[in-house]
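RECORD TYPE: inverse folding
INPUT: structure tokens
STRUCTURE:
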């Protein structure tokens, strides 16, 4: 088993998530994944610029288009040729970042041989941490501007079930589990919706050990029922 990645080396069960510290370890992972999975270098440049500025600002205040354009190293006209506008760019960038986080998860998961409990901890660590890097204010704005269904807002969730199902079936310590792929997909959507609602409602408990433990119990409860 390989060493666990830095994105999982936080004690979320004991301490509230620190978005700044999480952003520091997630940024290199997202940049590496973008270099592999995003064919347009211009999109990558704007995305990375926005992520870096967003990690520093932690809110919409002080986060403006010209800063993104300047840091990306491209012109304003190039930006508008790629994206219809500022909020459109933020939405595309947000969805792409979510998708890349699933690629990061899949890469690191494939390097591990985990018990059921270790798998649940690893998975919750990754996605709890990734979601805690996104300021509630930005997520709320995107939801207001692009209000749609949960599946359309978070299309990346659909990619998770096959990754997890395949891992559990091939991993020696979990291959005895009889997991239905479609059912697993529904459970993962429920977990993601719980995270999304906590952010949209600006829950005071979001980012705390309470929510971390809740999510892990939901995931483990479902999987343990199939032992």
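DESIGNED SEQUENCE:
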């Amino acid at each position: 088993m390989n060493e666990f990645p830095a994105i999982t080396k936080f004690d979320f069960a004991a301490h509230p998530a620190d978005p700044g510290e999480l952003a520091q370890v997630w940024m290199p992972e997202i940049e590496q994944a973008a270099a592999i999975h995003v064919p347009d270098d211009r999109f990558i440049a704007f995305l990375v610029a926005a992520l870096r500025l967003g990690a520093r600002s932690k809110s919409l205040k002080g986060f403006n288009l010209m800063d993104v354009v300047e840091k990306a190293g491209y012109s304003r006209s190039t930006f508008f040729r790629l994206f219809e506008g500022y909020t459109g760019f933020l939405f595309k960038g947000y969805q792409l970042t979510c998708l890349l986080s699933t690629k990061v998860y899949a890469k690191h998961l494939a390097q591990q041989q985990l018990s059921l409990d270790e798998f649940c901890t690893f998975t919750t660590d990754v996605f709890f941490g990734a979601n805690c890097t996104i300021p509630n204010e930005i997520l709320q704005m995107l939801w207001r501007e692009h209000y749609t269904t949960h599946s359309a807002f978070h299309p990346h969730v659909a990619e998770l079930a096959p990754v997890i199902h395949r891992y559990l079936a091939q991993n020696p310590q979990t291959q005895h589990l009889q997991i239905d792929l479609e059912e697993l997909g529904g459970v993962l959507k429920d977990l993601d919706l719980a995270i999304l609602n906590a952010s949209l409602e600006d829950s005071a408990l979001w980012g705390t050990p309470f929510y971390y433990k809740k999510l892990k119990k939901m995931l483990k409860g479902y999987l343990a029922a199939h032992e």
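NOTES: The domain at 18-224 is CATH 1.10.357.10 (Tetracycline Repressor; domain 2).
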